[in-house]
Amino acid sequence: MTARSRAPFYVFVFLLIAAGISIATWRHLELGIPWMTGEQRPVWMIEARVDFDALGDAAEVSLHIPEQPPGFRILTEQAASPGYGFSILESPRSRRAEWTKREVSGPQTLYFKAQFVPDEDVTEQTPVRTPRPQAVFWEEPQATAVRELLDQAMERSSSPESMTRELIRLMQPDTRTQNTTLLVSEDNYLQLMVRMLNHAGIAARTADALKLEDARRRQQLVPFLQIYNGERWLTFDPRTGEQGVPESLLLWRQGSESLLDVLGGDNSQVSFSMLRQTVPALQLATLEANQNGLGVLGFYQLPIEEQSMFRMLLLLPLGALIVAFMRIVIGVRTSGTFMPVLIAVAFVQTTLVPGLIAFLSVVAIGLVLRGYLSSLNLLLVSRISALIILVIFITAGLSIIGYQMGFNTGMTVTFFPMVIIAWTIERMSILWEEEGAREVLVQGSGSLFVAICAYLVMSLPLAGHLTFNFPELHLVILGLILLMGQYTGYKLSELRRFTPMKAYD
Asked: Is the pLDDT of residue 410 over 50?
């Protein structure tokens, strides 16, 4: 193959490797599948408790629930209220959890639970319609005080955000003037801010949030201020003027929608409890992939039995890579090409030491019996068929003996590929007759060495994790094997052989 003709080959290999890495990166970023094993993700379990006294007739309870709070993704939602009908009502303006029951009396308690996953990429959705400031009317002398305060804030600001921060500063107790004293009270502070901002031409509203603290019970929502800057809603702490939503803050309600409506009852109230949990990142990603329909991109929807099969099957390309590297680059001589891979797979099933003992025992006994079959002058087909049957009996016998001795791993010897072992015994026997025992020892030990190396790589938890959860990485393995197929240089095992040639350089 000329240098020019190799260019398409290298381009193809590059595309394979790039595709494998790109798809794996996309699955990591979009689906949340972790690169490493054992990664944990925080999950907040929020429980809303609704208490009220039923009046003896039909009851209907409606609770506002968040749709997409900034910085969080909703993982699961459920209600725990025996005897009540429950549904989640979707509308363009809000989402509400609704409980209904025809006849109910006395104290009642309803629960709504939701799991929230922190996610910095989740932002508030852009409103379908551009919010407009509400019309506000003032009576004297409040009208004059509002006008003067807004004029002061306007002079010291250049945007809706700075205007809001400046107005909050003017409303603080240490900076209050006669005008603010006239307007402000503890009961109307936040609503006064909303009205003043709307009067200034800035769309404003209130928002209720939960301050997330682990293992807290009976918490109440904390009010916040929101303004629309022409592009999105911005959140402010009405007491400090701090802008943004901290990581420890979950916006439960945004807008003027009522938090709780109860028909057929009185003395209603809602409180919140929260608990921080940690779950495996892979479990979380799998659950989310199945919920959004992206589970078809992996093996997660298959039955557990088939998943276990594919988890083992997808390790084979990794073993093939190790074998190709050992034979092409290192120069280790093996008995066949695929035998070390299959031996490594068997070792993964049996663990190394029991599998190694079982393999050596089967091959050793098989070689003795093969010598007897050779003396009978059988045809090749009959000899191989007889050898397969004998290998099965040998393996079964070793399994029974191992079980009687208390080695449970001996029962997994049946994972060895019987036909391949039988054929290997046949090849080794022929090689013994043609090349001698030394060559059998060299190729046999080389096969075991490569198999052990492949086993050490394939048994790594990270290897099983990456090959199963990122199957597209096999494209990278394929590209590397193709590149090694083009290698025609010295093998590392040959460097010592050609060392005397350096004297002629």
From this structure: no
Q: How confident is the model at residue 223 (pLDDT cuts 50, 70, 90)?
A: confident
What letter represents residue 505's amino acid? Answer: D
Is 255 within the bounds of a domain?
no
Cα–Cα distance, 28 to 73 (Å, whole number): 17
Q: What is the 3-state composition of the chain as percent helix, strand, coil, each rounded to the nearest 5?
A: 50, 20, 30
Tally of residues, the chain: 505
Give pTM, 2 decimals: 0.63
Please tell me the total count of domains within the chain: 1
Burial of 382: CB neighbours in 10 Å, binned 0-12, 13-18, 19+: exposed
Provide the domain limits for residue 397.
308-493
pLDDT of amino acid 411: 44
- Asked if 363 contacts 423 with a C-beta cutoff of 8 angstroms, the reply is no
CA distance 136 to 392: 91
pLDDT at res. 499: 60
State the DSSP code for 379. -
In a domain, 90, yes or no: no
159 and 229 in contact (C-beta within 8 Å)? yes
Peptide bond into 461 cis (omega under 30): no
Encoded amino acid at 17, one letter: I
